[in-house]
């Protein structure tokens, strides 16, 4: 699969270079056992490695604007387009919005564990190096077991856990739309250029009142710096050197691309899934504002059914690309049965296969039959 990872890295890199917005979103779908998590993790690791190598060749200086320079409410920018549609009352299981403070907005789903929180970005020096690319699984939006126990037919709900109706689908769709809205942000529209000197970096004290006419950044120079920084070489991850004293414009652009925390884009905190507890864990994953490539992976991210279809939207967004992994049922059955056994869900391989037949196979067939067409398809093979 190594060549597949490199191909996918190149696609993600090309998407980021061609897209004029702040970040890009990859939607990665596939049936159970197809290796979505493994593929997403390996692609993100390669992108982060490439990014670290690029950064090692750039002379950097830490520079953070005071936290007060952020907008007093993170819901006032692009995320407002999503959150303003939400009710202040949770009825019929639909999400509600709660303004917790000037620096925090919470979106609550069918259970508190499934909540999404938007926060003023943390000033983490290592975020750009380690989370340039980030994997976001949809597993944290499983409905908790106590919610399933309140279903009209709880026995079926537990037996079919992992089917679409056992997820908080509206919350997954809201997350996807929030991420898509951050892809739309043009950095120069909300973040004026920092001012540099040959001795280092200095920040205009009137950072948020900077006159656009004084900006040294043009669309062509932005594209040039963007392309150079995110070039991915399939054979050898090459590192290009940037000399800030010779090319100050490029260095300005690189600084801006690296420091996502200087925009109004929030950190997005979402639930993870605790396999030991077999339930979602609130606030388990933070999607950093500095992250440039987000890989949202899960069975149903391309599903063409109510609520789920809102995840992929109209699929014409220049900052969003969809990938799907295909796998034959026989291989999927073997993989998933072994996974159930290793996780302690079943006592033997035969029970694992029976569990696959009764639930995972049904879900996999739904994914293959009802998913929207992906931009790129990968065929998973046993190695």
Kindly describe this structure.
This is Yfh7 protein. InterPro entries: P-loop_NTPase. It comes from Saccharomycopsis crataegensis. Helix 1 crosses helix 2, helix 9 packs across helix 10 and helix 12 (329-342) packs across helix 13 (349-370). Helix content is 36%, strand content 17%. The strands form three sheets. Strands 5-10-1-11-12 form a five-stranded parallel beta sheet, with helices on both faces. A five-stranded antiparallel beta sheet has the order 2-3-4-8-9, with no helix packed on it. It has a two-stranded antiparallel ribbon with strand order 6-7. A hairpin with a 2-residue loop joins strand 6 (195-197) and strand 7. It has a single domain (2-379), classed as P-loop containing nucleotide triphosphate hydrolases (Rossmann fold, 3-Layer(aba) Sandwich). The chain is α/β, with parallel strands linked by helices and 383 residues long. The N and C termini lie close together (8 Å). The protein is built from 13 helices and twelve strands.
């Amino acid at each position: 699969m190594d060549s597949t990872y490199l191909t996918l890295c190149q696609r993600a890199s090309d998407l980021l270079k061609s897209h004029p917005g702040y970040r890009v979103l990859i939607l990665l779908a596939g049936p159970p056992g197809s290796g979505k998590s493994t593929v997403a993790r390996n692609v993100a690791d390669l992108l982060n490695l490439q990014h670290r190598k690029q950064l090692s060749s750039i002379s950097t200086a830490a520079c953070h604007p005071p936290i007060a320079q952020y907008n007093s409410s993170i819901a006032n920018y692009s995320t407002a387009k999503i959150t303003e549609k939400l009710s202040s009352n949770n009825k019929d299981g639909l999400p509600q919005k709660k303004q917790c403070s000037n620096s925090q907005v919470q979106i609550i789903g069918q259970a508190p564990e499934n909540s999404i929180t938007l926060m003023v970005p943390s000033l983490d020096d290592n975020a750009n190096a380690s989370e340039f690319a980030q994997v976001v699984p949809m597993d944290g939006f499983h409905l908790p077991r106590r919610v399933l126990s309140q279903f009209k037919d709880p026995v079926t709900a537990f037996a079919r856990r992992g089917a679409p109706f056992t997820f908080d689908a509206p919350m997954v769709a809201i997350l996807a739309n929030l991420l898509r809205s951050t892809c739309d942000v043009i950095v120069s529209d909300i973040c004026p250029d920092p001012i540099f000197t040959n001795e280092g970096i200095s920040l205009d004290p009137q950072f948020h009142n900077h006159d656009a006419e004084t900006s040294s950044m043009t669309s062509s120079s932005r594209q040039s710096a963007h392309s150079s920084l995110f070039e991915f070489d399939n054979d050898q991850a090459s590192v290009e050197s940037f000399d800030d004293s010779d090319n100050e414009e490029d260095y300005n652009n690189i600084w801006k691309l690296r420091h996502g925390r200087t925009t109004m884009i929030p950190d997005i905190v979402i639930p993870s899934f605790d396999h030991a507890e077999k339930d979602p864990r609130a606030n388990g994953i933070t999607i950093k504002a500095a992250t440039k490539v987000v890989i949202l992976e899960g069975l149903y991210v391309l599903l063409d059914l109510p609520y789920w279809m809102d995840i992929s939207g109209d699929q014409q967004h220049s900052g969003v690309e969809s990938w799907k992994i295909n796998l034959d049922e026989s291989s999927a059955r073997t993989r998933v049965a072994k996974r159930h056994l290793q996780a302690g869900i079943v006592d033997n391989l035969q029970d694992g296969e029976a569990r696959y037949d009764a639930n995972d196979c049904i879900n996999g067939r739904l994914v293959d039959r009802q998913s929207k067409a992906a931009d790129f398809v990968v065929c998973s093979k046993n190695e």
